[in-house]
Amino acid sequence: MPSAESTRASVHEQDPVRPTRDDEIAASGSELIGGPIGRRALLGTSWWTPVRVIALVAIGMFALGLIQKAPCYNGGWFFGASSQYTHACYSDIPHLYAGRGFADGLVPYFDKLNGDMEYLEYPVLTGVFMEVAAWLTPGSGSIQDQEQWYWMVNAGMLMACAAVIAVCVTRTHARRPWDGLLVALAPAFALTATINWDLLAVSLTAAAMLMWSRGRSLAFGVLLGLATAAKLYPVFLLGPLFVLCWRAGKWRDFGKAFGGAAVAWLVVNLPVMLLAWDGWAKFYEFSQERGVDFGSFWLILAQNSSDPLSTDTVNTLATLLVLLCCVGIAALTLTAPRRPRFAQLAFLIVAAFILTNKVYSPQYVLWLVPLAVLARPKWRDFLIWQACEVAYFLGIWMYLAYTTSADAHKGLPQEGYHWAIGLHLLGTLYLCVVVVRDILMPERDVVRRAGDDDPSGGVLDGAEDVFVLGPAAHPPRHAAHFAGPQVEWGERGDSPTGDSSL
Hints:
The chain contains 25 helices and no strands. By secondary structure, the chain is mainly alpha-helical. The chain starts with a helix and ends in a 10-residue tail after the last helix. It holds the Pfam family GT87.
């Protein structure tokens, strides 16, 4: 039986996986650009390496998303509330330039705002991002001119984040660089990229995943801590990582990751906590106090009930549901026939948080796209999910047009919006189901079927198990981790080192 190190080396010395050979949807789609990719392009022997191609495609798709917002840029944000919805080009960014005091030069977290919102309701690193964009925004002209510039400056900064995400996903799975095209071409990604500032946290999380895949546990922790300082959801990745390291006995690496995350988060937050506690705490207070909102199944329940649940009750129930999901994911991790891949569990935990939350905003899809690509790089399943998200993207704006316009025919009534919510919830659930199936049936996992173990797993990639529960505890550990791909190659009649494995 070969050692773990030699098995990993033999796998990683193979040529990169060719999606136009292994995926029927990718092969069919490639006909639009001249057919399946050739071997020389696949190996990156020209300037057009996968990283460069995918980065350029991501920037191009982002630019198309900006063009889609043109009706609002040319007046939709300012003249008539319904036009920004009927054109599906709404963005929080221009509205919050004046609404959160940036136009008046107020300092986030320190200076009180006029109106009901006393302080900026965003995490500290996102507030810094917003403030930097305000510094770069020309202060001359009308407030409409300034808001247009503020959106454009933010769009440029967010475009850089989008390119970082695409590059990081492309490089995380070394033998599957072309999977990054799923991120670059994701329609929901382009449509929602400039609704809010989520791409900052998503880019830091994608960079953290890349660092973990390279075995750099401390760098992973630092980046994840910074991501959590920009948005809450990245901290959830520490949960499945803890259970994976428990199963593999990699406590030292988890300790470095956890310590790096805690220190990085404190470095960003502690100064504001000490000097402007009320402003710093606003994000957490607002998260607790806000009621049931768009996109969640809680909204369907509330709008169809004569006695809706109180916000406190929803908070309690949502917390219990996400904790139940966490327990289920932990049990799945420890009992699966083969240790799940880190990206699979990262996707599941973030999806569980979103699905049980009292709000599922359209831009939350950005959190899931990179994780979905790493967890399930299958074009058919990814596009099914994206179709559901695009339908919801249109549905929410049509519903808001219906509620803000005097002409009801311009929008979507409440019943239709509930169907749109149900569709995008089912799309996310569908992707969760196929990921869980891959975990329970590793031979169905397209990443492992190509011969890898856990390319995003870093120190977990090829590691032996030291703690397993259930039936998975009985098979030999080496067989559980390394015999699987070898058997699959034999069953498929492919060579583990030849061109037929591409």
